[in-house]
Specification:
Helices cover 21% and strands 16% of the residues. The protein is built from one helix and four strands, in the order αββββ. β3 (76-78) and β4 form a beta hairpin. Residues 12-16 have low confidence and may be disordered. Residues 31-90 form the TIL domain.
Length: 90
Amino acid sequence: MDGRLLFVFAILFFVSIVLTTPVNEAPPLDCPANEKYYKCSLEVCYKTCNHLKTPPPCPSISSDCFMPSCECKQDYLRNSNGVCVPYEEC
């Protein structure tokens, strides 16, 4: 009886490990240079060269998730042609 109980616990342990292990998700979008894939982004947080002096407010938590997208990396802003450039080039 003890052997069967140990076997059942071993199986349950194995199943719980498999179910809780995160899967490495490959981003479905190939982002251009100087851009990073975000699974959930907020449209209000998009930064462009127009926001150089007055960046838009970007809430840290929001239930209003926009679609997955590629956004400019840190220290880059989207120019009028839609390309992410260093903020010095705006």
